[in-house]
Structures are given as C-alpha cells and as structure tokens.
Design brief:
Its EC number is 1.2.1.3. This is aldehyde dehydrogenase (NAD(+)). Pfam families: Aldedh (PF00171). By secondary structure, the protein is an alpha/beta fold. Helices cover about 40% and strands about 25% of the residues. It folds into 2 domains: about 260 residues, Aldehyde Dehydrogenase, Chain A, domain 1 (3-Layer(aba) Sandwich), CATH 3.40.605.10; about 180 residues, Aldehyde Dehydrogenase, Chain A, domain 2 (3-Layer(aba) Sandwich), CATH 3.40.309.10. The strands form 7 sheets. The chain has a 7-stranded mixed sheet with strand order 14-15-16-11-10-18-19, with helices on both faces. A 6-stranded mixed sheet has the order 7-6-5-8-9-22, sandwiched between helices. The N and C termini lie far apart (about 70 Å). Bound molecules: nicotinamide-adenine-dinucleotide. The site of nicotinamide-adenine-dinucleotide (NAD) has 28 residues, from helix 8 and helix 9. The site of nicotinamide-adenine-dinucleotide has 28 residues, from helix 8 and helix 9.
Length: about 475
C-alpha cells in the first residue's frame, strides 16, 4: 500500500470501480458507484440540512470553513500524493493546487455580502438582500479536482446552501477525502460527495430536489447540462473550455518572458482551462523567440509526477491521450512544421512530450481546437488589428493575455479581447476576490469574488412600508 492509498478511507458501496494512475496505468483503489437511490437519500439529507444551515450567521459558516481549511492544510502531504496518483501532475504542482485551495477557502469566506439599501425615507425602506438557493450540485472535472471542488463547496456553504459534490470518475479520490474532512466541521448533510460512473452527472442535473448546478468541464457537456437543468429551471453556472490566445509584442524582453510563457503554456501538461494555447509572436522577434522558447521547454523534464524535478506529467486519461495523439497526426496530414516534439514515444503511461508547432495556418486544427495536451501552436503577426481579429476568431472566450513593455498599447489591445479574464504581462493569475468566467461558449456566469458568491444566492427585494396610507407609523 502506498502512502497515497493509506491516506484514503475505505469507501464502500455494493458496486465499486477504480481510477487509473495515468503515469503507469496501474489501477487505483476501489471507489463507490453511487446509484439513483443514493442520490435520492443525499438530496433528502441536503434538504433537511438546508433548513438549519440557511439560518446560521455568516460568522458561523466562516468559522466552519476556516476549521476545514486548517484540516486540509494539516493533511496537505497526503492530498498532494493522492492528487499525483490520480491526476498525474507532478508533486510540486499538486502541492501548489493544495495551497491555492486553502487560500481560496480563506479568501472567499472573507468576502462580505451585505444588504443593499436602495431607498430609505420616512415613509418606506427598500432593501435588496441575498438568500441561499437550497441544494447545489457541484460537478467537477479531472484537471484541478481539488481547487475546483473547493471553490464550489465554499461558494455554496458560505452563502447558506447545502452541497453535493460529484467528482470526475477519473479523479474521485481527493474530492472524497475533502468532503470526508468537511463532514467533521459542518452539520450532517451540509456537505456531501457522491462518486460514481458516467451515469451520475445526468441523474444530478435531472433531480428536481437540486436548485443549482455549478458545472466545470467541456463546452459540449456544458450544453447537455444546461438543457437538462432547463427542465426544472435550475440555476446554472457553467465554466467551460477555452483556447486562450497570448499576443506578444516586439518590444518585450524576450529572455525575461520566455520562462514565464513556457510555464504558462504547459502547466499540468497544458490540461488547464486558462493556459496559453495559441501564442501570437510579432514577426520582428519571431525567429529569436521561437528558438529560445524551444531551448527553454527542452529543459523541462518529462516523467512520473513522483520523480523529483519533473515538470511534464502524463495526460490524465486514455481518452484524452488518444485525442492528443490524433491531433498530433495532423502535423503530417496538414503538413505542419514541428519546432519541438510532434511524435509519441513508447512508455508505460499516457505521456505526450511537449510539442511546438512553427507558424501553422489559422485554419489548422492545432490552432482551432483546445488540445488539452502539451501541443502549442506559435504564430507570426505583424498588424495589430489582424492579430486581435485572430485572437477573437473562435467561439471560445475564456481568457487571454498581452505581453508588451508599452502599457498603453498593451491595454489598448487588452480592452479589445473577447474573454472573461485578460492579463497584461502575465497569464493565469487568480485571486479569491477576483471573479473568473468565460465569454461566448466558454461559459455562463462567474465563480469567485463577490460576483461568484452571488450566483449561489437568490436576490430578494424587500419593500417595508413605514407609514400607512393615512400617514400613521406602522407598529
Ligand atoms: P467533461 O465535460 O467531460 O466532464 C466534467 C464533469 O462533468 C465530470 O465530472 C463528468 O463526469 C461530468 N459529466 C459528464 N457528462 C455529464 C452530463 N451529461 N451531465 C452532467 N455531468 C456530466 O470535462 P473534463 O474532460 O472533465 O474537463 C476538461 C474540460 O473542462 C476542458 O474543456 C477544460 O477547458 C474545461 N475546464 C474549464 C474550466 C473553467 O474554469 N472554465 C476549468 C477546468 C476545466
């Protein structure tokens, strides 16, 4: 038994399944397959719990969340090993995700939500207030199973809801443990986790006892989730796929930004929603930039996430691995030029070595599709309007970045980006107080910040008549 498996409880249901360690394709421990019956029981428990939890104060909820954050921190080592075992990312990146998760528990629960007095006269008072929705279904993907589950759990329970978490079948282990820890600090039924197979997600979105779905995953699945939620008019927040452009101007300090751009294109083997996935470099510096980027990426080690100094772990699952290999095959079918990588080497896991495609046409699949694997297209640009048009030319609009020493110029370009987040001289910076979300087909609504929390609330406008129609004060 490894350290990571020892960390897990013995979760049981009559039928079980297991995940796969993507670095070596060995089976991970058994996990439950929750049934429709389990879901009904969980929803009933969540509805009962909601009655009490929704009446607690912000302070009570914050204290429970902070105690949970401390418990997660105290188990950080076990979580990091388990995350690497199930997701594949290197231990250093697993630890980073754990650190971010507890930062987000503390940060989100420090945001104040106050009643908004819209009018107060001697005759009447009008107040806009925010009330919890009920039961939230939190559907989580496999790329950041800890951080994304945490954002949904905190947003739900801090605003007075109960929550049922559904991890991806590919990465159930850390989410089960996160919720097992949470049950020590919240009343029964406030935070629950149901792990299952592919049938469980649709059961949750269909269930009439669930009031909101917070979903993170692919755009294709997001559309199915929204259609299913429409039947009972559930509230939905959809955080979906992206294909982030980064525009690099000719005035940058190439040597200084190459390591940043290299890391921000390939973190988690590019299985990150908000990663640089289309890199537009000004033609005046293109050749030098590409040569230095290739040299830098070559220094980043590929291997099992448990090995020291590894940067590129495996692709998380076989389906995604097959998709990535198929996309790599377009190098020959579309006559593209690989400046680095481009082929798959035999190994015991789902490894794709980092690949850089040298100036592919805008119409090529490596530019138009989200690879979700370390395959980066780098394109030449010369005209500002043209590059903005290319950057905005897809149906996705999750995030983007502009790199230049000239902040006026960079801001002018950033202002024209059609994306939920845009960074100047960075990418993938996140803060609990700053909302993120997608434009166009990258999503609906936001998570994080005050805006994200309010998506877990109903808005209620209260009209208080202080004097009756004869002018007498109400008692
Ligand atoms: P996915 O859509 O395949 O699955 C996401 C979750 O939905 C899983 O838990 C899955 O079991 C569940 N699910 C699948 N079918 C369902 C259905 N019909 N009804 C309800 N639930 C269902 O996505 P994935 O492959 O796990 O994640 C990768 C994608 O997620 C990428 O496109 C990535 O860009 C996107 N993503 C977006 C963000 C963001 O914040 N915008 C963050 C992370 C990942």
């Amino acid at each position: 038994m490894t350290d990571a498996t020892a960390f897990l409880l013995d979760f049981t249901t009559s039928e079980t399944r297991h995940g796969i360690n993507p670095a070596n394709t060995k089976p991970n421990p058994p996990v439950p397959i929750s049934t429709q019956d389990d879901l009904v029981k969980a929803v009933n428990a969540a509805r009962v719990a909601f009655n009490g939890w929704s009446k607690t104060t912000w302070d009570v909820r914050r204290k429970a969340l902070l105690a949970w954050a401390d418990a997660v921190d105290a188990n950080a080592d076990g979580f990091a090993k388990t995350l690497t075992m199930e997701q594949g990312k290197p231990l250093s990146q697993s630890s980073m995700e754990l650190g971010k998760a507890t930062e987000w528990i503390r940060g989100l629960s420090s945001i104040e939500i106050t009643d908004n007095v819209l009018e107060e006269t001697k005759d009447r008072k009008i107040i806009q207030r925010y009330t919890p929705l009920g039961v939230v279904g939190a559907i989580v993907p496999w790329n950041y199973p800890v951080l994304l589950a945490v954002v949904k759990i905190v947003s739900a329970v801090y605003t007075g809801n109960s929550v049922i978490v559904k991890p991806s079948p590919f990465t159930p282990y850390c989410d089960l443990k996160l919720v097992e820890l949470a049950t020590r600090f919240f009343p029964p039924g406030v935070v629950q986790c149901l792990s299952g197979d592919d049938s469980l997600g649709p059961m949750i979105t269909e269930h009439p006892g669930i009031d909101k779905i917070s979903f993170t995953g692919s755009t294709a699945t997001g559309k199915l989730v929204m259609a299913s939620c429409a039947k009972t008019l559930k509230r939905v927040t959809l955080e979906l796929g992206g294909n982030d452009p980064a525009i690099v101007c000719e005035d940058v300090d190439i040597d200084a930004i190459i390591p940043q751009i290299g890391i921000l294109s390939y973190l988690c083997s590019s299985q990150t929603c908000m990663m640089i996935k289309r890199l537009y470099v000004h033609e005046k510096i293109y050749d030098d930039f590409l040569k230095k980027l290739v040299a830098f990426v070559k220094t980043l080690k590929v291997g099992e996430g448990t090995e020291p100094d590894v940067f590129f772990g495996p692709i998380q699952n076989q389906m995604q691995f097959e998709k990535a290999k198929e996309l790599l095959s377009t190098i020959s079918t579309e006559k593209l030029k690989a400046a680095l990588g481009g082929s798959v080497e035999p190994s015991s896991g789902y490894f794709i070595h980092p690949t850089i495609i040298d100036n592919p046409p805008e119409s090529s699949r490596v530019v138009r599709e989200e690879p979700f694997a370390p395959i980066l297209p780098v394109m030449k640009w010369s005209n500002e309007d043209d590059v903005i048009k290319c950057a905005n030319g897809l149906e996705t609009g999750l995030s983007s970045s502009v790199w230049s020493k000239d902040l006026e110029r960079a801001t002018r370009i950033a202002d024209q980006m059609q994306s939920g987040s845009v960074w100047v001289n960075s990418h993938f910076d996140l803060l609990p107080t700053a909302s993120f979300g997608g434009h166009k087909q990258s999503g609906i609504g936001v998570e994080g910040g005050l805006g994200g929390l309010l998506e877990y609330c109903n808005s209620q406008t209260q009209w208080l008549k202080i004097k009756d129609d004869t002018g007498h004060e109400m008692e």
